[in-house]
Amino acid sequence: MTDKNAYENIDPVTLGVIAGSFNSIAKEMALVLYRMAYSSIIRESEDLGAGLFDVDGNEICESDSTPMHIGSLPGYIDGVRHFLGDNINDGDIILHNNPYYGASHTPDLAIIIPIFYDGELVAFAANTGHVLDAGGMSPGLMVDVVDVYAEGKHYNAIKLYNKGEKNEEIWRHIFENVRTPKENKGDVEAMIASAKLGKRRYLELIERYGLQTVLAAQKRWMDYSEEMIRKEISKIPDGEYKAPTGWLDDDGRNYGERLRIETSVKINGSDLIVDLTGSSDQVETAYNVPFSGSTLPATYTIVRAILLDEAVSEVFIPQNSGIFKPIKVEAPLGSMWNPKAPAACTARINQVQRLADQINLALSEVLPDKTTAGNAAHVHFNSYAGIKEDSGDYWVYIEVNEGSYGGRYGKDGLDSVDNLVANTRNNPIEELEMRLPMRCNRYELREEGASAGKWRGGIGIVRTWEFITDSLFTGEGDRHTDPPRGVYGGQDGLTGSMTLNPNTDAEQNLHAKLTNFKIRKGDVLEIRTPCAGGYGNPHERDPQDVLEDVLDDFTSKEKAEEIYKVVIRDDLTIDEKATKQLREGSKVLNS
Amino acid sequence: MIRLGVDVGGTFTDLILLNEESDQSWIHKVPSTPSDPSEAVINGVTEICEMAGIKPFEIDQFFHGTTVATNIVLEHNGAEVGLITTEGFRDILHIARHKRPFNFSLYQDLPWQKYPLVRRRNRLVVPERISAAGEILTPLDEEATRQQVRKLKEANVSAIAVCFLYSFKNPQHENRVKEIIQEEFPEAYLSISNEILPQYREYERFSTVALNAFIGPKTSRYINRLEDVLKKMGIKTSINLMQSNGGIATAQVAAEKPISLLLSGPVAGLIGGIKAAKNANFDNIITLDIGGTSADIGVAPNGEMRMRHLLDTRIGQYNAMVPMVDIDTIGAGGGSIAYVDEGGIFRVGPQSAGADPGPACYNRGGTVPTSTDANVLLGRIHPESRLAGSMQIKPELSEKAFDEHIASKLNMTALEAAAGALKIMTHNMVNAIEMNSVRKGYDPRDFTLVAAGGAGPLFACDIAMELNIPNVVVPPYPGITAAAGLLSTDIAYEKVHTLWGSLTNPDISSIRDVIEKLEQDSLKTLKEDGLSDEQIVLQRVCDCRYAGQGYELRVDAPKGEINEAWVKEVIERFHQVHEREYASQFPDQEVVAINVRVIGIGLVQSDKEQSFVDQGKPNFSVSSYPSYPVYFWVQDKLQKQDTRFINREDIPVGTNILGPAVIQQKDSTTLLPPDCTASFDEYGNIVIDMTEALSVKNSKDLIASITK
After folding, report:
1. Residue of B95, B200, B348 lying closest to A431 (CB–CB)
2. What is the ipTM of this complex?
3. Contacting B residues, span 333-352, partner chain A, CB-CB under 8 Å
4. A304 to chain B: which residues are within 8 Å by CB?
5. What is the pLDDT of residues A361-379, one digit of tens each?
6. Structural domains of chain B, ranges and CATH numbers in brackets
7. pLDDT tens digits, one per residue of B651-682
């Protein structure tokens, strides 16, 4: 508990010094985790998070890995408290992943280590990582599953170590019941090493500065972050800001039945409430979103990104629970954003990406220079699996396909990059092909180019895989029907697609969501990710920028004339006069 | 033998000349000339030769450290580059690792997209494909290649990078493209991926090779021009350039692979620091070089530089997968600005007042408080005790700046604010040193801190105190440590090849073949540099990981025949390295060697030690120097003590001085807190013994913990 006296009297110098330590501890925890880890989804993609938490589960500091992860850990700690109550002891190492008790989703395992000082629980060091397989109905990912039990094994605050003693039987049980035991075990070892490190560093801080000073500093920094975000919320006029209705493709079983998203953002002084009432009810597949583990962290992430943009703000404002406090989410129990157990809910990344984009679009009207045009706001989250002929072991590869950002006030959108609440890394092709029976034939920007705007939208990618053996494929994707939205007169973006054997007689257009789809040896799979929307009227784009786009094949000469009203001669120079005429003519037409 | 070291920095070009016969050395500093750095080099060389009374042709060895390559990257003014790559993969450089720099930001830029090394219009593809096993899946379309090369020629690129997938497994296609370019467009500067970096991970390789092309034309022009003008001056020897791996390269090798020059400056500084500490008989060394805007930190256990993890090697925002010495740079220097942010938090840096307008006390228009102003307020830099030729300072301006910007906002005095600002800076540096020492398994209590740069010796003892470091060494000329470092470096080339072979179930003959080939290549390069067999040393390194992991660790591999015992030894060493790095090892797991490396070293340094000319006054006495009040931290409290301000060059070798004292010299100021003892050794170093001060501090800590 924070001592009032210590809180009021902490000197500004010590405060600054301790903040530096928090920051580097979280970074160091993440570094150990991904450098040591075994599964590529953790070590290459960095689909992980790590940090320190106070006794109530408030986040003290977090690593700059994947934002979804770490914002969810307070919920995991609540879940651990639910199962263990006060039965938390020095030397315990706790494994947890139940999405109805705080987890982000079933495959995101958390390791939580309580930190004791002088016999008293003072904090937690914790991290999460996405494991390749959680022992569910199919290897890797899945969408069309019957309930949460089919998604994988749940470890409800299981103690891998109890007061320092390893529970060998539980270790055996856990790793004998997944398809990738070696990778999962390596990952869990790395997670333990990382959390132990967090514990050690936190205790060193206490030794150096005293418990009360450290507690006071962490409280003060949470208050600081809260104050900074409240300041920004207060600048927005009170009222309700609504995004256009968004549509998800379907739930992965009832193809063609679109799912509605209603989003409004209410500002009341320095409080911000996201109201999702009116969105789709929960669905019968795993295409639901765990409320505390996913809906909330996604909301926190996008609100912070809009209001306290790290690249724009002059000072470093730490991400901690202070950021979360002024932000509330209303989503009725039983809706897609807040499902009732035992509904399955492992496939949720596309929905939370869209949620972030909806919040961005809702605020577009009132914050035109802090928001973007519609983003790709999806992930073609794919898993590929098979059984190795020689050993009989499973191989599983989970792929995060990137998106693109919408045009921005004064800036074009970002191309081919993980967006919004995801921020992973791709896997080197030269690594994948050495390990997996797959071959990449193409990995480039989509040739259709950018969506037009005064500031153009970002461009998605096209990737094709050729399969060297029969493989099992699961696609957890979306955005094949509802394109990213242009704003302020910018063009809408392009939807994504997946095609089997493109440009052949056997060409087959695939749904975005498939569970255990069989791909045969020699088949080729083409993935196209959405191109984001444009910002502002294309007629206002600087003709020079349009020419540069033509030179770089971000757009074509024909589109330059038709959409941007910029006439480019055959020698690739701008015909200023014709351009002026064309642009003025269209102004007259519009008025 | 007469040897010259010339280090070109952003503001100054530093020189050191050593005449081994007469046992004398000279140092000199001239302003750098950024538009054509060779001008400053010529000026400096001319002047230092005059000072030493020699003619340029008498110089036997010329060592050069330069930021030319680094600045091209930071200022993004390199060559227009063309890229020829595998069809289907035009945008590897544009997609990068698809991870954005900031988590929480919609308005960030992606540097590789906003400032591309190769613009998309110049990234051209050709049909060809090599498989992961090195087999040709699609043969190279030579006619298409020829057309693309012509296109690039028409587009007026001056450099071409050639990057195909898996060229490290099979370089045939890249090599053929090289021939075609040489036929069609012989003027183009070439950067071929299997020559520059035959190593897996396509984005990092492509980026490195493109970066090499980007800096290539300008850097090689600079080197050639410099050689020309030096020749005209009468210098007979060729120049040797400092590389990021801590070794030097001949001008020819450097011009072909300028990418290896990127960290040149800070590395020479680290080497100079190591040299000073070794002279003073210390082995485990931490160097801290604090300049105007930033501080460089290097850790050298047993006096050996550590190499950075190969995925952390970047310059500016670009990946460059080349061996670099592990040096950490943080934004803390003499010009770092102290301020209170919107939320009431006291911060220092990374913003800097730079040289212009500079600290408030310089009275050149700067009004915000800086680290230098804080040192002025604490009396550590004194207006009445400045050396001739140094900047006039006005303490009242420092006070005003701290009053207005910090003290009034945080309800403290200007003095407290200044002390606080220095404490925050000190802790930022302590944190950075811990990240690079304690957290990599090295205990700072076993290390010696070498303080360099203009401001390093002002902070060194406070930092040593925090980290319980028992000794601090201040080299004779802290401001030119990098130039001095150039004179203690050998030629070193590192050659690498991706092996991707199990060590647990090894194919010994293939490991042997790869290493032997690398060793032969290394010998060839070194012999072309004119080195004899006795001067050549070859070292082996394996980048290993447990099968299934994604990141390698560098493991020094033994010499001698490559057989089962050799492989076992590598495995054993890998377990130990893993233990040190991650505090765990998995002895039952399979170990894989991803890359093998051979470092070819050409020994060019003479064994002769640099000596120092004692200019100390025969009747030196501390009490003859003026004394002013200076504030020190004593048991975590600020305490004022009368302190002597002594000129360093007056102090004879062998003298011991008990703190408090301030020791001044032209390019630096050393702060000696109470209970610390400085002794002046025969190499001109100040060696500060912190043990007494530490025992006072630690006994207080002990009492505090008992009475808690």
Report:
1. B200
2. 0.95
3. 341-348
4. 104
5. 999 999 999 999 999 999 9
6. 79-207 (3.40.50), 280-294+331-485+619-708 (no CATH), 491-602 (3.30.1490)
7. 999 999 998 999 998 878 999 999 999 999 98
